[in-house]
Amino acid sequence: MREGFRKELKELKAEVVAIGRSVVERTRDAVRALVDGDVDLAAQVIAADDELDSRCLGIEEHSLEIIATQFPVARDLRLLHSLAYISMHFERMGDLAVNISKAARRTADRRGPQTLYDLIQAQGNLVHRVLEAMLEALEKKDLELAHKLPDLDEPIDHLFKQFFRELARLQDEEDIEWASSMVLASRYLERIADHAVDIGERIVYMVTGEFESIGEAEETAEEASAE
Amino acid sequence: MTDHALADHFREPVDDHGVKIAVRDLDFYYGDFHALTGIDIDIRERGVTAFIGPSGCGKSTFLRCLNRMNDLIPGTRVDGTITLDGEDIYGEGVDPVDLRRRVGMIFQQPNPFPMTIYDNVAFGPRLHGVKKKGELDEIVQKSLERANLWKEVKDIMDRNGLSLSGGQQQRLCIARVLAVEPDVMLMDEPCSAIDPTSVQKIEDLMAELKDRITIIIVTHNMQQAARVSDETAFFLQERMGEAAELVEFGRTAEIFTSPQDRRTEDYITGRFG
């Protein structure tokens, strides 16, 4: 009954969930580093990225090995394929957390208006909520929760737009480099949440075998900024 | 999105090939034993259809219904209809010998006749009245070429067919079937008794032949079913002593990625069987 094979699949999935957990923590730390101007914390997030990348690569390699040696089909194949895809999303989300940390480093030596920090923190909290829901949906194969991800993502996009409006109110003497770093950070957060929604689609495919677009057509940051 | 392009790919119909064999409400009995029940299936022309399922699930029995091989077993009975090109193969006036020419069969163990390679391939055409040497030569060469065996045997045509390797013997049997120009070739575990290189050759051969004939293969090797077939049918005898049924039939790519029936999924992922 292929017990060894099933155990291997289970362990692989547990590792992907663990990587996801680590991405959630890094995102939270990156936002904290940005808001608190904590360059040490930012440096930690940046330094940890290599390990995250190699764990994600490990998932891809392991999936390929299992495909080559065990000839998985149907739900086993969908699981493996989805795990490889999801770990790729995690790797990119990790990169975005690094980018936020770099923005934290660039902006740490000065303080801008508090409203913008509050907005970033609020956005970070909402992203945290989406990521937690995504992880739970993945762990429990919870379709209902996976379908809720786009709704949880929506306010994040709104906050990103609001961030732009706030920036427009800045006075000429405000530091342009600071402002652009902050807006980029806000955009990175919004992208992290978009990845979570994409992972939700993967979870649906993994469970049902149906490719289904669960969210609205994605609006790019460029489109948002053009409004 | 790439995902959805992929989804569309999966949903594409196989092709516009017509139905070669249509089976409706087929039940099959060995004496008192009800072996198959309620089989409905359309086998498409010029494609490969694979029958899979655990041992004893009736897939070989069903295969043998398609050219009336089961007629040779006393006490068997068929209910329902099987049509080949719209004609009932169990209808009155159908000659089973002629049917078996149109619907040839390859068995698990290669079974060349104990005669020369040439005579093995010429056997069928001679039986059907081809007498001229030149004509027979042409049929023999063409059949061996189509079976991808010609190059290996052209200089040893007068050797006994049984002197060939297992894989070559199986291709000789395929050439023997091809020599009578069948419409359909039934293959009952054709690769389970031969070496991997020969398996590869036979699988390649199936891919070439399916442009001209309809192939149905029974196989225990799920990877083989996935590799060679366009459509896959999963048969299952749910409980010992009960009649087996056709659980699921569909495009092979779909069956092996997203089967609709839980029993198919459990079988192909190795959870039972």
- Give me the count of strands of chain B: 10
Name the shape of chain B in a single word.
globular
Pair with the most extensive interface? A-B, 18 and 19 residues
Radius of gyration of chain B: 19 Å
Poorly predicted parts of chain A: none
User: CA-to-CA gap between the ends of chain B?
Assistant: 38 Å
Biggest pleated-sheet summary of chain B? 6 strands, mixed
Q: Within the CATH hierarchy, at the fold level, what is the topology of chain A?
A: Methane Monooxygenase Hydroxylase, Chain G, domain 1
Strand order of the largest sheet of chain B: 6-7-8-3-9-10
Count of alpha and pi helical runs of chain A: 8
What's the helix and strand layout?
The complex is a heterodimer of chains A (227) and B (273).
Chain A: H1 3-36, H2 39-47, H3 49-70, H4 74-107, H5 114-140, H6 143-168, H7 176-208, H8 221-226
Helix pairs in contact in A: 1-2, 1-3, 1-4, 1-5, 2-4, 3-4, 4-7, 5-6, 5-7, 6-7
Chain B: H1 2-11, E1 19-30, E2 33-44, E3 48-52, H2 59-65, E4 76-84, E5 87-88, H3 96-102, E6 103-106, H4 117-127, H5 133-146, H6 150-153, H7 166-178, E7 184-188, H8 196-209, E8 214-218, H9 222-228, E9 231-236, E10 245-251, H10 252-255, H11 262-268
Parallel strand pairs in B: 3-8, 3-9, 6-7, 7-8
Antiparallel strand pairs in B: 1-2, 1-4, 4-5, 9-10
Helix pairs in contact in B: 4-5, 4-7, 5-7, 7-8
Structural write-up:
- The complex is a heterodimer of chains A (227) and B (273).
- Chain A is built from eight helices and no strands.
- The mean pLDDT of chain A is 91.
- Chain A is elongated, with a radius of gyration of 19 Å.
- Chain A has one domain: Phosphate transport system protein phou homolog 2, domain 2 (Methane Monooxygenase Hydroxylase, Chain G, domain 1, Up-down Bundle).
- Chain A is an all-alpha fold and 227 residues long.
- The longest helix of chain A has 34 residues, at 3-36.
- The two termini of chain B are 38 Å apart.
- Chain B has one domain: P-loop containing nucleotide triphosphate hydrolases (Rossmann fold), CATH 3.40.50.300.
- Chain B is globular and about 55 Å long.
- Chain B has 273 residues and is of the alpha/beta class.
- In chain B, the strands form two sheets. A six-stranded mixed sheet of chain B has the order 6-7-8-3-9-10, sandwiched between helices. In chain B, strands 2-1-4-5 form a four-stranded antiparallel sheet, covered by helices on one side.
- Chain B has eleven helices and ten strands.
- The relative contact order of chain B is 0.18.
- The A-B interface holds A 1-2, 5, 71-78, 201, 205, 208-211, 213 and B 1, 3-4, 6-7, 222-223, 226, 256-259, 264-265, 268-272.
